[in-house]
From TrEMBL:
The gene is trxB. It catalyses: [thioredoxin]-dithiol + NADP(+) = [thioredoxin]-disulfide + NADPH + H(+). The lineage of its organism: Bacteria, Pseudomonadati, Pseudomonadota, Alphaproteobacteria, Sphingomonadales. Keywords: Disulfide bond, FAD, Flavoprotein, NADP, Oxidoreductase, Redox-active center. Belongs to the class-II pyridine nucleotide-disulfide oxidoreductase family. It comes from Sphingomonas changnyeongensis. Its EC number is 1.8.1.9. Its cofactor is FAD. This is Thioredoxin reductase. NCBIfam families: TRX_reduct.
Length: 320
């Protein structure tokens, strides 16, 4: 068992964690990043990224994350492959334990563990992920300009995604398993008033259907939840919008979570209720959930951590 000590311990190696690392390293905090089960984070699971500023041409998600990691290492970050399974935030340095048995001590802690989109769990969904099936309209909607798309879900996320997609597609179909939506009333009113959107009620997805060469999505097989009847809807893109699961289980009972399970931070900062613990990226942001916003709040977390340490050191020297 090894004990790793640092001024800035970062959980997560997505855009938020690596941006915090770049700023933390350049502030002389010698950060350690514990990478978790998905080194590089969610962008490792996608191909084309067209909306990350700074690149005129389409770039690949894994390439972007490789560059971010190299940049973080280049300025002095230590990357460690481990998954944190236990936390003690009752005193500083915060003490976290890894699956490997190693212990991580941080004078400050930056939590950047992200949030995973929920999927339906169908084999065809996995097969066609990135080839017509997506869980992010903001990320991928642009690729379906002028084409027919479907959105699966009935809550706020689904309605927001459907409305957003009408910026690109003239034909958006919302597929919902019930006969009414859970989304807020005002969103429902906007949805029903939009001539580009139609709704299919009482339908679940049986299968995402592949076709063409190279194989991509050509439609969705649906099952009626009342009659059991099977039908088919042609579509070039399908957006699964049934919510997200923030990776916060580790912190339940240690830090306050909001009603959707996201880490709660002070408005306008990345500070949690525990002094010295900061949260950034999708784990604390259920509104935007983009790589660039995750990177932005990662930068904020590093600056907040650096200021916290400077103030703590000043207070300690005055007391001495
Ligand atoms: C298919 C897909 C395509 C997307 N396309 C785009 C796009 O084109 N443009 C865009 O801006 N955004 C896109 N996004 C969204 C973007 O990927 C996320 O907003 C962004 O990755 C969030 O960054 P993050 O650092 O907060 O979290 P994540 O990227 O989710 O990273 C979380 C990190 O935390 C680690 N972790 C979790 N638990 C632990 C633990 N217990 N111990 C240690 N580490 C842990 C994980 O291993 C991972 O490294 C896409 C998302 C998906 C899924």
């Amino acid at each position: 068992m090894t004990v790793h000590h640092t001024k800035m311990l970062i959980l997560g190696s997505g855009p938020a964690g690596l941006s915090a690392a770049i700023y933390g390293a350049r502030a002389g905090l010698s950060p350690i990043v514990v990478q978790g089960i998905q080194p590089g984070g969610q962008l490792m699971t996608t191909t084309d990224v067209e909306n990350y500023p700074g690149f005129a041409d389409v770039i690949q998600g894994p390439w972007l994350m490789e560059q971010m990691q190299k940049q973080a290492e280049h300025v002095g970050t230590r990357m460690i492959t481990d998954i944190v399974t236990g936390v003690d935030l009752s005193r500083r340095p915060f003490r976290l334990t890894g699956d490997s048995g190693d212990v991580y001590e941080g004078e400050t802690l930056v939590i950047a563990t992200g949030a995973q989109a929920k999927w339906l769990g169908l084999p065809s969904e996995q097969e066609l992920a990135g080839r017509g099936v997506s869980a992010c309209a903001t990320c991928d909607g642009f690729f379906y300009r002028g084409r027919k798309v479907v959105v699966i879900g009935g809550g706020n996320t689904a309605v927001e995604e459907a409305l957003y997609l009408t910026n690109h597609s003239p034909d958006v179909t919302l597929i919902h398993r019930r006969d009414s939506l859970r989304a807020e009333k005002i969103l429902q009113e906007r949805l029903f008033a939009n001539p580009r959107i139609s709704v299919l009620w009482n339908k679940t997805v049986e299968r995402f259907v592949a076709g063409g060469e190279p194989a991509g999505l050509v439609g969705v097989d649906l099952k009626d939840t009342v009659t059991g009847e099977i039908s088919h809807v042609a579509a070039d893109g399908a957006f699964v919008a049934i919510g997200h699961q923030p990776a916060t289980q580790l912190f339940a009972g240690h830090l306050p979570l909001d009603s959707d399970g996201y880490l709660a931070v002070e408005t306008g900062s990345t500070r949690t209720v525990v002094p010295g613990v900061f949260a950034c990226g999708d784990v604390m942001d259920k509104v935007y959930r983009q790589a660039v916003t995750a990177a932005g709040t990662g930068c904020m977390a590093a600056l907040d951590a650096e200021r916290f340490l400077a103030e703590a050191e000043f207070a300690a020297s005055r007391a001495a």
